[in-house]
Amino acid sequence: MSDENLFDQEDYLQARVDECIWQKSTDAGISRQRFLKILATMVGATAVAGLAKPAPAHSQTAIKTKGSKILKPLPPGYISHSKGTLEMNWEAMYGRGYLVPNDWFYVHNRHTPPPFDPITWRLKIHGTGVSAPCEFTYDEIVAMPSISVTCAIECAANGRRFFEEAYNTPLSGAKWRLGAIGVAEWTGVPLGMLLERAGLKATAKDVLVEGADVDSLDSKETNKSKFSSVVPISKALADNSLVVYAMNGEPLPPDHGQPCRVLFPGWGGNANVKWIERIEVSETPIYTQWVTEQMVLVGADYPAIAPYKGKLITYQNVKSAFELAWPATLSARTHLLRGRSWSGKGKITRVEVSLDGGKTWQFARLREPNFPFAWVRWDIEWNPIPGEYFLQARATDNLGNTQPSTVPWNDSGLLYGGIVSHPVTVRG
């Protein structure tokens, strides 16, 4: 059997597993007994059964920052940029399954995960946009009809380092390359169902979701508040907008929002609030500093429209990444280059790869599954001679959005979606 057929067989089997995961859903949630049992025995998080765990990347060393806000162990080869960040290692993902196991999923914590007591925790829903304000217990949410959605969560600052390199200007915040993303199967209750139980009014306009984590809104750390995000009622009522309590078939790990978080597929990670405690529904627009000052693009190309400091961030853009070390060193032989591309606005329909720094392009082979608001895996054969190379990938989604060569500057380094040159050295 040829190497190509081996790759085909591996991907075919994995695709069947992924399709099974995608199709399954529960009619009555996951039982209280099962959840509490796992919560009591869980240390960190476990990968979903049947999914291959990424192999350690021995060329890199994992170092957790002193005073880390991350509870789970640092996977080998992963990068911790600050006390609350953990970047996925693309080299370790080479040839692995569609989903990212829980313990390998990227982390951006503004605060150490708060303690969770399933007996006392409550989710409050209130505001002028509902007629019957109420609270839900953890048991009540888990017992409700649930659905499972496979999609990505991606930090809006993913790719920030490339802004610095392109404009030779330093930025504050985590120096993410492209590893502030992950795809998982998220299980929970449709947010719209909870809002209906709270007596959702036809006049409702905005929905604010607040978490338990407290962070500062300024560099002096004098203006602190609980982190929150705001979405329009249309997004809150979307079929795939959830109050999530499970990730890859297990209770949400502490670093990923235990006991519950919201899921708004396609929107930046900051909208998918973790450790949620309160949901406010309003008949008038809601403006908070977290949204008007932090979730915006500020720069010459993004004029401010009061009360926003710049252009509001909602959907993520198109990106691509090679499953290679950065920088990578390969031997002079035939390689099957692999990567993943994704879009916050739909599904990827085409991926082009350049092996010569953008001079020429060829189509990569797309691998199933390929879900909207998630990613598609792709590959292409390469038989290089010794030398220095810059590999590039350019993806296009079903709405025609394509990665550009350049991206306008913004002061926070958010939503970088340009073509990235991946340095590779080939040795004889």
TrEMBL record:
One of its GO terms (molecular function) is sulfite oxidase activity. Coiled coil: none annotated. Its cofactor is Mo-molybdopterin. Residues 333-415 form the Moybdenum cofactor oxidoreductase dimerisation domain. Keywords: Metal-binding, Molybdenum, Oxidoreductase. SUPFAM superfamilies: E set domains, Oxidoreductase molybdopterin-binding domain. Residues 112-290 form the Oxidoreductase molybdopterin-binding domain. Pfam families: Mo-co_dimer, Oxidored_molyb. Transmembrane segments: none annotated. InterPro entries: Ig_E-set (IPR014756), MoCF_OxRdtse_dimer (IPR005066), Mopterin_OxRdtase_euk (IPR008335), OxRdtase_Mopterin-bd_dom (IPR000572), OxRdtase_Mopterin-bd_sf (IPR036374), TAT_signal (IPR006311). GO terms for biological process: sulfur compound metabolic process. This is Sulfite oxidase. The lineage of its organism: Bacteria, Bacillati, Cyanobacteriota, Cyanophyceae, Nostocales.
